[in-house]
Each structure stands twice: as structure tokens, then as C-alpha cells.
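Let's study my pick:
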Amino acid sequence: RPDSVFRRAFSMFSLADYATANAELRAYLEAYSGDRYNDEARLLLGDGLFALGELDAGIASYRSIRPVSTRFFEDGWFKVGKAIKLQRQFGEMREHFADFVETYPASNRMAEAVYWIGWAHKAEGDEAAAQEIYWATIGAHGRRPELFGIADLFDGLRKLYPGDKRAGYRARLAALATEALAAEEATLELHAQWAAAQSWAPESVDHRVCFIRAAELCDPETHNPRIIADCADYLFGAGDHDGADSLYAGLRKWNPRAVERDRSLLGRARIAKLAGRSDVALDLLAQFENEVPYSPRLADAQLLRAELLAASGQRDEALAVLTSLLEDKVLSSATKAQALFRSAEILAAGGEGMKATAYFERVYVAYGKYRDLVARSYLRRGELLAGMGRREQAVEVYRELAERDDLAAFPEPGEARRRLLEMGEGDDA
């Protein structure tokens, strides 16, 4: 009976019927005091009250959660803190999170609370105090692998060292990594190397050196899945697919519910594709869509799925995936440009040249800021028109591409000029 009452209220909340959900949650708490779902109900009631703008009542509900229900209790505490943040009461916000750190120093969310203390200091204009508490916490607790919030502290610190100050931040990280190595503190060194890698431009030698060392220190069983995913992504980009796959697989095994599992599934699918294992890649992408359908990387997964389907001869299925991306009103223009270009290539490969030329034209007319795709689309459209015997149209496309100064850094304009010469149109180009 209590279970069914709670579940009904939960369902109302899931349907965004907050007024009904709140009423039913209150009735449940009054009728079934001491039930196992009480603290979850208090958290849910706080969320429902916040959704209706009843902040004081929501805060009271969060604060009634018992500490014995650790996850719900901590969620409530942090939601109260963020409510205070929204009210711009930064002093009260600092005290709220400082109370958490003092009372629950062993909590896995302790470092996260410190992050918000530093954030409040910065909001008040006291960046030195923010730096001090971040560095002190890293020095005292940076060797604890279960404190995933340590990564947030480095994020906060990096923002406190902009411009010319960044060199001082890097020097301090290098010293921390050296000290950690000497003391054989692998987790602390990992944190320092990962943070240092984040502070350098991706094309720099220092970025590569720091990430390589960080990847060597990673232990997916114990370390922060965000750091594991970052190191795996780096190794993949650097061509170490075996190393990347090992980290992705470890992340998935030891952190099956982590937010970063989307990066694990997508990364392993990309590696499987490169290894020629399309069936494995498609299976991983199916898991992706089933498990993390709201991931911000879903479009990337669907683009890859379309590519795999097209390569295996499933042209209609691939086009259906790409069409769904083009029809999605919330996707980025970058994704739509990619979907349009790939649709054009599939149409061209399937013998629908004229339709493909229209798609390529849409890329450079509608998505001009993606200059690499624009240049490739011009050239491909010209090739198709020439191949179909439409010489005048092909010349027009090649000439337009050759004269685009904004595309001069790409090889396609030069190729267009060469083809114009071959067609006897060089003098006019």
C-alpha cells in the first residue's frame, strides 16, 4: 500500500503534474511516516515545490531529509545551496557549504561543496580566498580517488588564473605532480597531470606529454570517470586505439551509471569501425541510443551509425537516420551540415546524381560558416555535374569555388582551377 501510493505520486511528478504530485507526496508522508521511501519523497517534494516557485517550502522539505539516507540527504543539501545561490546570498551560500564540509568531511561530495565555497568567494570578488581554499583542499585530499569533485576544483582554479597568470598555475601543478611522483601518490599525480593537460592548448607538446602521463596513471576501477574518459579520448585522437579501448571498457565496467558512459560507448564504436568490425560498432551504437538517449553526443552517434549503414549497403536505412537529424529542430547547424553532406554522398553513390547535387548546393548555401564542408561540397557538386555531361553548370560551380577568397586555405579551390584548365576554361578563371 505505501509503495503504490508513493509510486503514483512519483508518476505524477514524472508527468510534470507538480501540483498533484506535491499533494500526493504530502499525503503519503503524513499517512506513512517511517516508510522506506520517506526521504526520497521529501527530495521529490522539494523538487516539485521548487518547480512551482515555492522556494521556502521546498527548502524546508529538503532540510527534513534524514542524514541516514545519504544520497537523498546530500542531494537535498546541495539543492538548498543552489537555491541560495539563485537568490545571490553568497555569504549564506558559503556558510551552507562550509557546514557540509565541516560536518561530513568523509563524504564523497565534500570536494564538490568546497567548489561552491570557492565559487561564492569569487562571486563576492575575493579570488584569493577561492584560490586558497581550492589549493588547500587539493593538498589535503587530492590523493583520495573517491573524491570526484577534485576535478571541479581544478576547473575552478583554471578560471582563476587567466592570461598571464596561467603560467603560475602551470608551475604550481608541475610542482604538485613532482611531489606526488616522489611520494608515489598516483592519484594526486594523476589529478595534477590531468589538470595541467587541460591548461595547455591541444596542439602543444605540453598538452600531449601531460595527457600521456595521466593516461598511464589511470585506474578505471577507482578513478574519476570524467578523467578516464578525457584520457581515453586523448589516446584515441593520438592513434593509440588499444589504450583508448582499454580505458573506455574499464570506465564502462566500473562506472556503468556514470554520465561519461556515452563517451565510452561512442569511443568504442569508433574504434570498432576503424578495426573493420562494423557489427560490433552498430551494436555499441544501439546500446548508446537505448541507454543514453538524451546524451549531447547522440547526434554524433547517429552520424556514425548512418556511415556504417551506408558502408554495409543499407542505403535507405542510412538516409532515414540522416533525414531524422535534418528534421530535428534543436540540433546544431554543424550537425545538420554534416548530415546534409553525408546524405549527398550516399545519394551520389546510389546513382541519384542530380539529387545529390542539390544537397551539396544546400550545404554551401545554407551552412557557409563550415568552410571545410563548403569547399568539399562545391568540388563534389562540380564533379557530379561534369560526370553527367552538364559542362556549363560544372564550369560555373568550379569558377565560383576558385574565386572564393574565404576558402583559399583549403585545397579544393586549387583543384577547381586545375579542372577549369583541363576543360579549357583557365583563362576566364
Observations:
- The chain has 23 helices and no strands.
- Residues 70-86 form the longest helix (17 residues).
- The radius of gyration is 27 Å.
